[in-house]
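Before surveying the methods themselves, we first show a specimen of the format, giving the amino acid sequence and backbone structure tokens:

:::
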Amino acid sequence: MAHPKNAVILLSGGLDSTTVLAIAKAQGYAPYALSFRYGQRHSIELAAAKAVAAEMGVVQHVVADIDLRMFGGSALTDDIDVPKYESADQVGNDIPITYVPARNTVFLSFALAWAEVLNVYDIFIGVSALDYSGYPDCRPEFIESFEVMANLATRVGVEGKQRINIHTPLIELTKAQTIEKGIALGVDYGKTISCYDPAADGASCGGCDSCMLRLKGFAEAGHTDPVRYASL
């Protein structure tokens, strides 16, 4: 049997990135997982990413350190309260305070650097342009532009030996469709966390925009979310 292709997977420990990891594996890629300690409010998601990476058998899992707290500007990296909602309908599509400025640009740049070192030409990221909180760096236009840049900024791209591809298998899926795909691939969503403001014991808050969109997705998919919620 031919050796599987290699790919760098951005893995946050959340629902979307874990689903993307499962999709990449199902497509025959040998995954190299990349997570970030970027000054986020909690380390629970990194523990989830570690557990997911171990269970799903990645080739290597790297956690890169970047301190975005030096810039702030987000409820995830600054002394700003995470907004809470009563329902997913209240979330809206305006860019929220939980948006971390240029985060996906930074993350993809690190993924691109590691991909060059590994001689890998495929990068997977779990962005969605449908069920999301209005983040500008989750849109197809951004991904397409970054892919163009990646092929202008790398040795393989300039030498024309190989094309760098940014894969976004969830970009046109709703959260419910993402969950259905993940369940079909055997994803254990109990090991993931999406909450922006979890309790010290790891329970999700149930009120932030990420929790709201996750709960809405599970409800629409006809499944029960297996993670613990402090407020439910």
User: Anything to note?
Assistant: Helices lie at 15-26, 44-55, 103-118, 140-153, 155-159, 175-184, 209-221.
